[in-house]
Amino acid sequence: MQFTGSLRNIALAGIATAIALAAFFAAAPSQVQAVTPLSEIEAGDLIRSVSNSAVYYMGADERRYVFTNDRNYFTWYDNFDDVITISDIDITKTQIGGNVTYRPGVKMVKIVSDPTVYAVSTGGTLHSIDSEAVATNLYGSSWNTKIDDLADAFFASYTIGSPLTLETDYNPETVMNAIETINTDKNLRAPEGMNITDSAFSPIDVTIEVGQVVRFTNTGSTPHSVTADDLTWGSGTLQPGENFIKQFNEEDVYTFFDSYNGTATGAVYVELSP
Known about the structure:
Elements: H1 17-27, E1 46-49, E2 56-58, E3 64-67, H2 70-73, E4 83-86, H3 88-92, E5 96-100, E6 108-111, E7 114-121, E8 125-128, H4 132-139, E9 147-150, H5 152-155, E10 159-160, H6 172-178, H7 182-186, E11 192-196, E12 201-202, E13 205-209, E14 213-218, E15 227-228, E16 243-247, E17 252-258, E18 261-271
Parallel strand pairs: 1-4, 3-5, 6-9, 8-10, 11-14, 13-18
Antiparallel strand pairs: 1-2, 2-3, 6-7, 7-8, 11-12, 14-16, 15-17, 17-18
């Protein structure tokens, strides 16, 4: 449901996305730090490149996740003290996994073009708040200072859940304390590995759960690729040592081949979680 009255007027003059991002990056550490090899980066690290102050979260799935603005970042972290600098080349070797969503329980959110206000729960799930009374009970009398605007473009990173009609439906402190890391919030897990040798995929198939990722690594001595049989996705050319990470979000059997070696084929079996 949508609020009426005062809530309709909250944050209508939200900062434009480009300006917010520029301010965020300007606030990030600008002094170049010692460069850390990509091989030393671990899941949960905050990273940036030498020539760009944009800060990313390195997920357990070996992909980097984007902080959409400073307000988003500071629901997870207090400062930039733990940001690690890697080389410009190494940052390009890490694939973008998606956007970081607000930490559950810290703030309420809305989009500029819609007065509906939402509480945030795990995985970027949004729950519309039924009334100002519910908002007051959840976030106190200053609830209207705890709402951030989302740019319409970033709203797609969230999913809509059930509305909150009673304050007992949701406890901000409880949901915040339950989700301490972005890995936990997004249920990110280490990739299943599959090598592309000069003669075959090894192993020839893997079984994963919906939402998991597979890392395809060229361990051969010549270029290789992984290309879907139906041509809907593919890695492009992978030079020796390069890898490609693919997330599989639907239950199915995904078959593929190496376009540099048509006899090399493989499959990923994607199953629902037990």
